[in-house]
Amino acid sequence: MNIPQRLKIVRECCGMEQKELASAMECDVSFISLMERGRRSISVESIQSLCNAVGFEIRYFFDTDSGFADACGELILKRMRIIDKE
Q1: How many CB atoms lie under 10 A from the CB of residue 79?
Q2: Residue 38 gets which letter from DSSP?
Q3: Virtual CA dihedral for 16, 21, 57, 41, nearest 10 degrees?
Q4: pLDDT higher than threshold 80 for residue 82
Q5: In this model, does residue 11 exceed pLDDT 70?
Q6: pLDDT confidence tier of residue 79, bands split at 50, 70 and 90
């Protein structure tokens, strides 16, 4: 799994649209789109900004595929608990 794929997966696990993530990261939505499609180089700072915006630990972003998947599963469960409380 490559970096652009992981960016998109993390965003989707949080239930965010590109526009919402761009707002949380204080960047333009086209920046998110280009990163997710692999058409823009991605800095560690950008990845950290995304992780901060969605509450995802950056160490999991660079983990093995199974470690990354487990962390994404935790994001989904966290989101479900928030929805249940509403």
Answers
A1: 16
A2: T
A3: 120
A4: no
A5: yes
A6: confident
User: Residue 74, Cα to own-chain centre: how many angstroms?
Assistant: 13
Task: Look over the chain and give the mean of its residue pLDDT values, rounded to a whole number.
Answer: 90
Which value, to the nearest 10 degrees, does the dihedral of the CA atoms of residues 62, 65, 72, 53 take?
20
* Whole-number Å distance between alpha carbons of 49 and 42: 11
Task: Quote the Cα angle for 47-1-11, to 5°.
Answer: 45
- How do residues 14-45 score in pLDDT, each as one tens digit? 889 999 999 999 999 999 999 999 999 899 99
Pick the CATH number of 3-85 from 3.40.1190.10, 1.10.3730.10, 1.10.260.40, 3.40.50.2300: 1.10.260.40
pLDDT of residue 55: 87
C-alpha 79/C-alpha 10 separation (Å) is: 12
Cβ atoms of 42 and 4 within 8 Å: the answer is: yes
